[in-house]
Specification:
The protein is an alpha+beta fold and about 350 residues long. The chain folds into two domains: about 140 residues, Nucleotidyltransferase, domain 5 (2-Layer Sandwich); about 190 residues, Hexokinase, domain 1 (3-Layer(aba) Sandwich). About 35% of the residues lie in helices and about 20% in strands. The strands form three sheets. Strands 1, 2, 3, 4, 5, 8, 15 and 16 form an eight-stranded mixed beta sheet that branches. The protein has a six-stranded mixed beta sheet with strand order 9-14-13-10-11-12, sandwiched between helices. Helix 7 crosses helix 9. The protein binds adenosine-5'-triphosphate.
Length: about 350
């Protein structure tokens, strides 16, 4: 059933939070206009559960008592106990409402928050990769290589922005160039297949690097994604350089495929921890070449802009925009919103 504006609105002060595998970032919104009050980033491993983290890191440091919370979590939101992917916390909204005195809690998917950020952030928080002009009300797509590979669409319909979270990071990826056909047999697979996430995330970069080393019978010195990108950008190691180049090409191909799926004339947005660390590699022509190489639709892709989001707290910016003006966004909260007067997911 369609929600009325009264039902959609969240009461201030609103606690917003982006809960990742390693880090949790929080801020408080006092009203619609004031700048968010930010707090130091919390390491999830430092607290046994999310309620204690919020109490110690936020509520004990301010006299503002939030009435509502909008939290983005990595993991499927299903039922009254939400297990987070990549971290030991379990979110229990009913218990959280009681222990922290919250009247209203909304949980969103972490990549949905990234999609909301794309609307919330201006071009000053983005670096454009290549040409193309965004049509302001057209669909957009967000891809984020980080610990995993997140993908979300963003559709403009009925005067609101509707995030479309999905599992697009798990689409199949195949070899295309002659070199790919040499390297791909050496990639580590998941149940026999090569998905986007086997290549386009931190672990994926290491996978590509090792596969290239094996193909050429060269030693693989590096074990972390940061070591590989550092050596590649410094041009101090051939295998690392080729691994980053292949990563960039594969990201361009997948970004192009997703741009076709969503017809994202509003732009393709790269978020997550890795994209902003490899901006110079993404500015190499190979990224746009792979992105645009989509016959018979190359002209369509050439007109679509690609941006790297550089804002360090992009998801929080998206959550803040949603919390302040929920009517601007078509976010479905059924089964993901807990209000104390009914004490159940609605
Ligand atoms: N300089 C770098 N180059 C390439 N990859 C890096 C670099 N620094 C960190 N990484 C990798 O980025 C990934 C983390 O990405 P990101 O910061 O987006 O985390 P996340 O998925 O949002 O998780 P969380 O929110 O829990 O911190 C890890 O795989 C890490 O190894």
């Amino acid at each position: 059933m369609a929600q009325t504006s009264d039902e959609t609105i969240l009461k201030f002060p609103i606690l917003i939070g982006d809960i990742g595998g390693t880090n949790a970032r929080f801020a408080l919104l006092v009203d619609s206009y004031a700048e968010p009050r930010e707090f130091p980033i919390v390491q999830t491993a430092d607290y046994p559960n999310i309620d204690e983290a919020i109490q110690a890191a936020i509520l004990d440091r301010t006299s503002i008592m939030p009435k509502s919370a909008v939290l983005a979590v990595a993991g499927p939101i299903d039922g009254d106990e939400i297990d987070l992917t990549n971290c030991d916390w379990v979110v229990r909204p009913l218990e959280m409402a009681r222990s922290l005195g919250l009247e209203d809690i909304v949980l969103l998917n972490d990549f949905e928050a990234q999609a909301l950020a794309v609307v919330a952030l201006g071009e000053e928080h983005m670096v454009k990769i290549g040409e193309g002009e965004a049509e302001s009300a057209a669909s957009r797509v967000v891809l984020g290589p980080g610990t995993g590979l997140g993908v979300a669409g963003l559709i403009h319909a009925r005067r609101s922005w509707i995030p479309v979270p999905g599992e697009g990071g798990h689409m199949d990826m195949g070899p295309r160039s002659d070199r790919d056909f040499e390297v791909f047999p050496h990639l580590e697979r998941i149940e026999g297949r090569i998905s986007g996430e086997q290549l386009l995330c931190g672990r994926g970069l290491v996978n590509i690097y090792r596969a290239i080393a094996t193909t050429d019978s060269k030693p693989a010195h590096f074990t972390t994604p940061a070591e590989i990108t550092t050596a590649a950008l410094a041009r101090s190691d051939d295998v690392a350089e080729e691994a980053l180049a292949m990563f960039v090409t594969c990201l361009g191909r997948l970004a192009g495929d997703l741009a076709l799926v969503f017809m994202s004339r509003g732009g393709v947005y790269l978020t997550g921890g890795i994209a902003q660390k490899i901006v110079t590699a993404l500015q190499h022509p190979r990224f746009r070449k792979a992105f645009e190489d989509k016959a018979p639709h190359s002209a369509l892709l050439r007109a679509m802009p690609v941006y790297v989001i550089t804002h360090p707290l992009a998801a929080l910016a998206g959550l803040a925009a949603y919390a302040r003006t929920p009517m601007r966004f078509g976010v479905e909260t059924e089964g993901r919103r807990w209000r104390s007067r009914r004490s159940t997911a609605t």
